[in-house]
Structure formats: structure tokens, C-alpha cells
Amino acid sequence: QVHLVESGGGLVQPGGSLRLSCVASGRTLGLNSMAWFRQVLGKEREFVAQISWSSDSIYYADSVKGRFTISRGNAKNTVYLQMDSLNPEDTAVYYCNALSGSPPQNSWGQGTQVTVSS
Fold first, then answer.
1. Tens of pLDDT along 23-60?
2. Which of 8, 16, 53, 96 reaches 20 to 30 Å from 26, CA-CA?
3. Cα distance between residue 44 and residue 63, in whole Å
4. Among positive and negative, which fits the CA dihedral 5, 8, 13, 14?
5. How far is CA 11 from the centre of its chain?
6. Are the beta carbons of 70 and 51 closer than 8 angstroms?
């Protein structure tokens, strides 16, 4: 079991920036790709960004491309999401996701609230 803890959410004005962090602990030996998703109350959870184990494969949702940057720490058990040029449509609970083991198993964090408002 991989345990994920997110941090870094908060309230920011439109045009501002936030940096989310997610730290994985527990059975991290088989940790593979990590990702960020977000969810607005009453809507489905949506994909934001994903990064492979070696950081050589990175994917973004079209809605955040050019504004958000996903990266991985040197220890590989940490993933970051740098969010720039935030707008109110980015308001959501952001969840960290990790794939680990074989067959791959999904793990989710508890989420961190990001609110973009003036």
C-alpha cells in the first residue's frame, strides 16, 4: 500500500501561482508513474498531469498546458505541480495519484483545496 499526502493548496487571486506537493510513503519500492487529478463538487474527477518514473514522459490536460508544470523530486517519491496563471476555472480539490506494483495498483491522496478568487 502506498500512502500519499498532498500539501500546498490555498486561496490565490486570478493570475497568481501555487505549488502543490505530494509525498509517497509505505510500499514505494514499486512506485511508477505519478499524476495529479482535480475534482469540482458535483463533477467527475479529471486528469491534470502525469509524469513517468524517469520523468521522460510527461502529459498534460489541454486546459492546463503551458500554465502548469509537473515534476518529480530526486528521491522519486515526491511529485510537484507548479501552477501559474491561475484562473477561477482551476478551482477544485487536487488529488495526487500513483501507480505501483505489478499488476499496477492505484493509490490516491486525500486531496488539497485550491481556490482561485479575487
1. 999 888 888 999 999 999 999 999 999 999 999 999 99
2. 8
3. 15
4. negative
5. 17
6. yes
